[in-house]
Amino acid sequence: MARMSAEERRESVIRAAVQEFARGGYYGTSTEAIAKRVGVSQPYLFRLFPGKKAIFLAAAGRCLEHTRKVFAEAAEGLSGDEARDAMGEAYIRLIAEDPAMLQMQLQMYVTVAAAEAAGDRELGELVRAGWLELWDTVGIPLGDVRETTAFMAQGMLINTLSAMGFPSGHRIWDGFGDGVDKAAGSVGGVMGGCPAV
Predict the structure, then answer these.
(1) 14-23, 99-108, 115-124, 169-178: least confident range
(2) pTM (2 decimals)?
(3) Residue 118: DSSP 8-state
(4) Cα–chain-centroid distance for residue 150?
(5) What pLDDT digit, counting tens, does each position of 148-161 carry?
(6) C-alpha dist (Å) from residue 51 to 42, 81, 83, 191, 194
(7) Is there a smaller number of Cβ atoms within 10 Å at the N or the C end of the chain?
(8) What DSSP assignment string belongs to 148-169?
């Protein structure tokens, strides 16, 4: 078997970090757990990244960029209601198929709030910049700031309800439509048992 390059190993660390931070949060995840998931030593991990914060920043950036790409690809060539519906369905698929993406988003928000309360603005700057890119990616095909606000607000509500584990079929999902209700069962089922959320 061929040895992985440093860049390939770095990518595997980012993927593992998304999973670990999604589950345990920044403060509850050790670099040892990330190194173990990748199959490397902690000293090797620190040759790839200068510290835990750098690993978290890379994982957060990856999560935001992946979500942005999902929106962009779904809305390609579409506008208005068609773009909104396509992006909404794509996002529901994303969090249903990869619940760690939703968990990582939620962990990012908690971590930013805690870091900023302690005087550290670096995490917040990265997350805010990534979130603004998400906003712009959604806003361009929707073409209206109110539509963009409504879309993002509904998405954040879906995130919250999914994280709390509301099951498919619960009346809380009635106003969202069938696609969200179906995804709620798979997302809520996974998220509901997650102690980190």
Answers:
(1) 169-178
(2) 0.86
(3) T
(4) 19
(5) 999 999 999 999 99
(6) 10, 44, 40, 28, 26
(7) N
(8) HHHHHHHHHHHHHHHHTTPPTT
Q: Reduced to 3 states, what is the DSSP secondary structure of residue 175?
A: coil
Let me know: does 133 contact 68? Beta carbons within 8 Å: yes
Q: Which two tokens stand for residue 140?
A: 């361009």
Q: 56 with 17: CB under 8 angstroms? A: yes
For residues 191 and 99, the answer to whether their CB atoms sit within 8 Å is: yes
Tell whether the torsion through CA atoms of 127, 160, 103 and 74 is positive or negative: negative
Phi-psi group of 170: left, alpha or beta (phi > 0 → left; psi -120 to 50 → alpha; rest → beta): beta
Dig out the tokens for 56 from the structure.
Answer: 């978290």
**In the numeric block, which tokens belong to residue 10?**
């770095």
How far is residue 143's CA from residue 141's CA, in Å, rounded to a whole number?
5
Q: Could you report the per-residue pLDDT of 78-106, keeping only the tens digit for each? A: 999 999 999 999 999 999 899 999 999 99
DSSP letter for 78, please. Answer: -
Closest CA to 104 of 95, 96, 113: 95
Question: What is the rounded distance in angstroms from the CA atom of residue 37 to the CA atom of residue 136?
Answer: 34
